[in-house]
Design brief:
single chain; mainly alpha; 2 strands
Length: about 120
């Protein structure tokens, strides 16, 4: 996957670390030395990942529009739906990122202020 990402994005990409167990594995950390670590990325934060806050919802709706009868059918439907997601949906998700980041920073500031008052 890394060679393909580098081919598409060059050196302008950064992996986010959301503290998923597979992301915390020692082998993963050694493989991906340049990523946003868990101390800088809010834990369990679908708010900051466009795939989590937009794309998976669109996919889920489309994948389950009709009954799925087998694992193979599910795999094929996921593949088909993933490739049918229009670019404007992806662009919309990405355009919401800065607003979401600002809201998360603001929320963190409020939490820090409240903790100082206690």
């Amino acid at each position: 996957m890394i060679p393909v990402i580098k081919q598409v994005a060059g050196d302008t990409f950064v992996f986010q670390q959301d503290s998923a167990p597979t992301h915390r594995a020692r082998d993963t950390i050694q493989l991906l030395p340049d990523f946003i670590g868990p101390d800088l990325w809010p834990p369990n934060s679908p708010d900051l990942n466009p795939v989590d806050y937009k794309i998976w919802g669109v996919m889920q709706q489309r994948v389950y529009e009709s009954r799925i009868n087998s694992i193979d059918e599910l795999k094929q439907r996921l593949h088909d739906v993933w490739h049918s997601v229009q670019q404007h949906i992806i662009d919309l998700a990405v355009s919401q990122w800065r607003q979401r980041l600002t809201a998360c920073v603001h929320t963190r500031d409020i939490v820090n202020i409240c903790c100082e008052l206690v």
